Amino acid sequence: MNYDSSGSHNICMVSDFFFPNTGGVEEHIYNLSQCLLQKKHKVVIVTHSYEDRVGIRYMTNGLKVYYLPIKVFYNQCVLPTMLCNIGLIRYIFLREQIAIVHGHSAFSALAHEAMLIGNLLGLKTVFTDHSLFGFADASAIITNKLLEISLSSCNHCICVSHTGKENTVLRGQVDFKRVSVIPNAVDTFSFTPDPSQRDPNHITIVVVSRLVYRKGVDLTAQLIGDICHKYKEVEFLIAGDGPKRWKVSI
Fold first, then answer.
1. CA dihedral 201, 196, 236, 249 (to 10 degrees)
2. What residues contact 96, with CB distance under 8 A and at least 6 apart?
3. What is the pLDDT along the chain (250 residues), one digit of tens a residue?
């Protein structure tokens, strides 16, 4: 394992989802990488190309990002070949002297492929599952089988909630002892409501989310109608965008 006398590690974050695309996974990877850089670890990010963004780019604090010349297959993800990109990914791992491969999102084929290659190279692998998935539809069946193969040799898994842990353990057939829960955090320095500014006669419920089916927007829209009809003092503030925006804009 590559580390210096101070105990720092060379870490590679891998996912199909990263900037300039926007979303929770993208923000999580970026913020986690910045925190690790502050702890004196070396961090590089591997993702696929986004239009003309191909090659190596540098972000805040020298965060190095590899935008691989791989075309998107479906829903911002590359084709799950598992081994077709082994030459390119292996080269990056060796060039950057990577010790830990950290894959993000069960739907990211690139993350699964990188973790598999990392295992073949004898590297430590970590996987973070950010979302809940079902069991019955075609997409879930394919994704869950890929997840089961990938996690069979993964050293440790991270979920953002206890419900997410249960979901991942069942979908991936992974030992629950190899799964930890690290809840998503709220930066209280960036979000500090002032109670004195609140109208005591009104209750504002804030919803921050990508407005897509998988985030439960259809259920949210139904709840908004039911709650606002029953409680006149309640109002909703929606922050986000997506194809389901019309559902919560009526």
1. 110
2. 10, 12, 42, 44, 64
3. 454 546 799 999 999 999 998 888 999 999 999 999 999 999 999 999 999 999 999 999 999 999 999 989 887 889 888 788 999 999 999 999 999 999 999 989 999 999 999 999 999 999 999 988 888 888 888 889 989 999 999 999 999 999 999 999 999 999 999 999 999 877 778 777 788 888 888 998 989 888 877 788 889 999 999 999 999 999 999 988 888 888 887 6
Question: Identity (one letter) of the amino acid at 227?
Answer: I
Q: Which of 183, 164, 25 is nearest to 47 (CA)?
A: 25
Give span(s): CATH 3.40.50.2000, the chain: 10-181
* CATH of span 10-181: 3.40.50.2000
Rg of the chain, C-alpha, whole Å? 20
pTM to 2 decimals?
Answer: 0.83
